[in-house]
Structures are given as structure tokens and as C-alpha cells.
Design brief:
Residues 51-70, 81-100 form the Helix-hairpin-helix DNA-binding motif class domain. Keywords: Signal. This is Competence protein. InterPro entries: Competence_ComEA_HhH, Endo/Exo/Phosphatase_dom_1, Hlx-hairpin-Hlx_DNA-bd_motif, RuvA_2-like. It is built from 4 helices and 2 strands, in the order αβαααβ. By secondary structure, it is mainly alpha-helical. The protein folds into 2 domains: 1-35; 39-102, Photosystem II 12 kDa extrinsic protein (DNA polymerase, domain 1), CATH 1.10.150.320. A two-stranded parallel ribbon has the order 1-2. The N and C termini lie far apart (68 Å).
Length: 104
């Protein structure tokens, strides 16, 4: 009987821990897949410098310069989705960076 109770205690302890371990794993995966910056830390597309823009995922010097050039030639961004009008930025790139930028 003691073995049965000990076994049940071990199983219940594992059952209690299993969802926690699973949730932690999901949390880590979720952060990589859809990591976003809080709104107050997002970069404003209409005032960002090249140095700030290159901190965005997948944005190097050339894309950062293209964003600034577009802003200077066309005017301020009205919405984040307008980034797809910048040379070298498509829907896939937009989906990578839209959580890190905003338009004021």
C-alpha cells in the first residue's frame, strides 16, 4: 500500500509539473515567433534615424536608408502597412517588423 501511495504521489507531482514545463516551452517559442516591443518602445517610422531603423529585425543599412528616402520624397507614413511601398520591403518583411514600429 505504501508503494501505491508513493507512486501516486510521484505521478501527481509529475502531472502538476508537466503543464508548467509545457507552458514554459510554449512561452519561449512564442517569444521567438511573435516577439513585439511594447508600444512606448516602438520606433516611430516618421522620426526614426537610420541607426534606429537598423535595429529592426531584417533591416540593414540599405533598407533603413530606403525608408528614410521614401519618407523624405513621399512624406510621412500614414500607417505601418505603407512600408511595403518602400523598395525592398514586402509583406514578409513587414510581418517581421510591424510589431516594432508605429506611426505617430
Amino acid at each position: 500500500m505504501k508503494k501505491l501511495i508513493s507512486g501516486l504521489l510521484v505521478l501527481s507531482a509529475l502531472a502538476i509539473q508537466a503543464p508548467t514545463v509545457h507552458a514554459q516551452g510554449m512561452s519561449e517559442e512564442g517569444n521567438n515567433a511573435s516577439e513585439t516591443a511594447p508600444i512606448q518602445q516602438r520606433i516611430d517610422l516618421n522620426s526614426a534615424t537610420i541607426e534606429q531603423l537598423v535595429t529592426l529585425p531584417g533591416v540593414g543599412q540599405s533598407k533603413a536608408k530606403a525608408i528614410v528616402k521614401y519618407r523624405e520624397e513621399v512624406g510621412p507614413f500614414l500607417e505601418v502597412a505603407q512600408l511595403t511601398q518602400v523598395k525592398g520591403i514586402g509583406e514578409k518583411m513587414l510581418s517581421k517588423i510591424e510589431g516594432y514600429v508605429l506611426v505617430k
